Amino acid sequence: MHDFTVLVLDGAYATSVAVTLDILRAAAGLAPRVGAAPPRRRVVSVGGNTVALQGGFRVEAEPIHRLPREDRSTWIVPGLGLNRAADAEERFTQADARRAVGLLQRHAQCGGAVAASCSAVFLLQRAGLLAGRKATTSWWLAPALQRLEPTCTVDADRMVRADGPVVTAGAAFAQADLMLHLLRSRCGSALADTVSRFLLIDGRQAQAPFVVPEVLASGDDLVGRLALRIERALPAPPRVAELARELCMSERTLARRVQRATGKSTLALVQSVRLRRARALLESSRMTVEQVAAEVGYQDATALRRLMRKSAGANPSGFRSRAHS
Question: Rounded distance, CA 107 to CA 165, Å?
C-alpha cells in the first residue's frame, strides 16, 4: 500500500515535480528521527516509463494501466506550468489528459483523496471533482476556473485549500505548501514540521500578497484603469459609487464587470490595490507601520494589521523582516 501516488503528465512543470519528489524523499529519510513511519510513494504516468517535463528534464514513472483494487493513497498531480486557462483547456483535450481524468474520477469514486496545484487544478475540474467544493489555483487563473465551475467557490487568496478529499494549491511554487499540508494530514505534524525546518520551507497561508490586480484581470482594460485610478488616489481611495459615476455605469454593472474579470468584488479590488501598495512601502522604505497605514488610507495601523492577517496571513512586520533581514 502506498501513501502517495504522484501522477505526472507529459510536459509537467519540472520544478513542481521535483519539489513533490524531494519533499517525499526528505520525509522518508527524516521519519525515523521523529518516530513516524516513512511515507510510501510511487510515481505513475499514463504513457511510458519516462515522462518528458518542461525544460528538457525527464522523470522515471511506472505506467499505470488500471487502478489497484484497494488504493487508499492520496493522488497528487504536480503543476503543469500553463499560464493561460485556454492553454489548460487545450492541453486537457489530449489523450493522456483524458485518460488521467478517468483515473482521477475512478479514484475519487472509490473514496480516494486527490490533490493538485496551479493549472493542474483544472484537471480536477475536468474530472468533475470541484463541483460544490471550495478550491484555489494560481491567482491569475482563478476567474477562469470560477467560470468553468460556477458551483465551486474559488478562493484565490488562499495558498492551500482543503475540502474533504480534494486539496488544491496556488501557483507553481505552492506545490511545496501543498506537500507540507499533505504530509501533516497524512503523516502527522511532527514529520511535516521537521521536513519544513530541514528544507527551510516556510509554510505560507495566502497568495493575496502576490496578487497584481491588472494581471488578475487577464488584460481587461477597465480593471487595469480602475487599479491605476485607485492607486493614484491613495491615501483617499474613491468610493465604489464614485468609480461607477466616473465610468458612466451603475454600481451593479461595475460590480459585474469586475467580478467577471477578476472573480472579486469592486471593494475587494480596492483592498487589493491598497494591500499591494502597503506591502511595497513596507519592503522598500523605513516608514513605520502607522505611517504606511496612513499612506494607504487607514486611520490607524490596527485596520491594516487586520486586513493583512485576513488576506495575507501575516502581520505588516512580517513583510518588513523579509525585506530587511
Answer: 11
Assign 3-class secondary structure to 65-95. Answer: CCCCCCCCCEEEECCCCCCCHHHHHHHCCCH
Q: Let me know how many helices (H) and strands (E) the chain has, helices first.
A: 15, 11
220-225: long-range contacts at Cβ-Cβ below 8 A with a sequence spacing of 24 or more?
220/257, 220/261, 220/262, 222/247, 222/257, 222/258, 222/261, 223/257, 223/258, 223/261, 223/262, 223/269
User: Alpha-carbon distance 315 to 10, whole Å?
Assistant: 40
Closest by Cα among 106, 24, 20 to 68:
106
pLDDT one digit per residue (tens) for the chain, 325 residues: 899 999 999 999 999 999 999 999 999 999 999 999 999 999 999 977 899 999 999 999 998 876 666 788 999 999 998 888 888 889 989 999 999 999 999 999 999 999 999 999 999 999 999 999 999 998 888 888 988 999 999 988 788 999 999 999 988 788 999 999 999 999 999 999 999 988 887 656 556 555 555 555 455 678 878 888 898 899 999 999 999 999 899 999 999 888 877 777 888 888 888 888 888 888 778 888 899 989 999 888 888 888 787 766 667 776 765 544 4
Q: Which amino acid is at 100?
A: A
From residue 130, how far is each of 79, 108, 152, 222, 244 by CA, in Å?
A: 17, 11, 6, 30, 34
Cell 492553454 belongs to which residue? Answer: 87
The overall pTM is greater than 0.90: no
Beta pairing class for 62-63 and 50-52? unpaired
Bridge partners, 63 (sequence order): 45
